[in-house]
Amino acid sequence: MAKHTPLYEEHLAAGGKMVDFSGWDMPINYGSQIEEHHAVRKGAGIFDVSHMTVVDLTGERVREFLRYLLANNVDRLKESGKALYSCMLNERGGVIDDLIVYFIREDFFRMVVNAGTRDKDLAWLQTQAVSFQVEVTERDELAMVAVQGPEARNTVLSVLDTEKRSAAEALSPFKGAIAGEWFIARTGYTGEDGFEIILPATEAAAFWRQLVAAGVRPAGLGARDTLRLEAGMNLYGSDMDEDISPLEAALGWTVAWEPAERDFIGRPELERQRAGGATRKLVGLVLEDKGVLRNHQRVVVDGDSDGEVTSGSFSPTLGRAIAFARVPAGISNSCQVDVRGRLLNVRVVKPPFVRNGKAQIEL
Amino acid sequence: MSEIPGDLKYAKTHEWVRMNDDGTVTIGVTDNAQEQLGDMVYVEVPEAGRILEREEACAVVESVKAASDVYSPVAGDVVEVNEALAESPESVNQQPYGDGWLLRLKPADSGELDALMDAGGYQAFIESGDH
Description:
The structure holds two protein chains of two kinds.
Chain A: H1 8-13, E1 17-21, E2 24-29, H2 33-42, E3 45-48, E4 53-58, H3 62-69, E5 83-89, E6 95-105, E7 108-113, H4 118-129, E8 135-138, E9 142-148, H5 152-159, H6 162-169, E10 176-179, E11 182-185, E12 194-200, H7 201-213, E13 217-218, H8 221-230, H9 267-276, E14 280-287, E15 298-300, E16 307-315, E17 320-328, E18 334-339, E19 342-349, E20 354-355, E21 358-359
Parallel strand pairs in A: 3-13
Antiparallel strand pairs in A: 1-2, 3-9, 4-7, 4-8, 5-6, 6-7, 9-12, 10-11, 11-12, 14-17, 14-19, 15-16, 15-18, 16-17, 18-19, 20-21
Helix pairs in contact in A: 2-8, 5-6
Chain B: E1 9-10, E2 15-19, E3 25-29, H1 31-37, E4 40-44, E5 51-52, E6 57-63, E7 67-71, E8 76-81, H2 91-94, E9 103-107, H3 119-128
Antiparallel strand pairs in B: 1-2, 2-3, 3-9, 4-6, 5-8, 6-7, 8-9
């Protein structure tokens, strides 16, 4: 029996086409993925992300715990509300999950992890937390929505009550704030401005309806995927997993090497990879011929071993097929992809493809 | 509910066939199929002149979600293809039985048309979920 989020009835009412996603019944689209995609790039869209896992970490030594647990360094979080994107690694330097952690107070950090990795993440957190006396509490009674797009911020502000509005209005990008039982953060997974809002499940449907009435378009997981791909953001399970290190997944920027004495899980293996030079890397691809790039297609590199498309799709903003692919580190600026038995020409680019509604690469 | 015109024939692989007055047949994918596939972003049609076997993969419709083969419901010669789909693949979503047509064939054996489903049969086939 698939699980339902507190917004399930809203999805049905909006004509959501429901599919299984990690055991949850979620909307893949509400009729047109491409129109939902454009709505987020040009106006505002709302996503139900209540299937994601919110975990509160509390205790006197929670910062020390996170310093050890995460490849990025929570000491970068100095102001309350500030968010950090990080990988959580195993001892082999592979990615258990990627996540966002918010610093609330010295004895309270909040983490948002993926739905598909919930069980193993919670088990790992529990195991690692013991020696730091950190308490790990899943907040599955909370709902979560993402409102994204150039119009998202103003529209959200227009429907919030005074207390929440002043909290939300003051947020700079990548910051969050507690407002009563709500948590409002200026973060997202689309490459557009907007908010991610964690709120009591009982209030989620009313908030959703208010936003839809204010012109925000419900957007499904399909659009969420093409938006994040255009924005150059990795998807766990596709672009990296437990056998892939952040250095092989274009996430080297999320690894905090300094201070050198900070010990974190996976560090020795990452240091070895860094010293030896990674043999594979994740790059962006743009298809020069007609067709569509798809996950797992073979990338053919002149005089080198094959690579593989890890996330491929059609970019509604660019009108072209784009992808991330894991390829030999020495790749030049062009290669070919085996698309249904035909070798098509692709250009190697550095993501993002699109940011704030604008193309970041030449076509 | 998806639209299933009464004057067409249907294949289990979700193609429709229209019998034209000149003895040729026009082929496309059904409304039900385009709904399942989602927004089309690329359509590949065969070359005119190609000779197709019955149930041979003859075109590809790609949506944002996935690529899907289109199978020729009958054997025959390709006499015309819908070139406009290269620029407007969304026609397959918007007018699956109109501007979204894929190709026109001259059937090798018009008897093969009798093996296809009529609208009622296709409706029952979709509802059975056996596809």
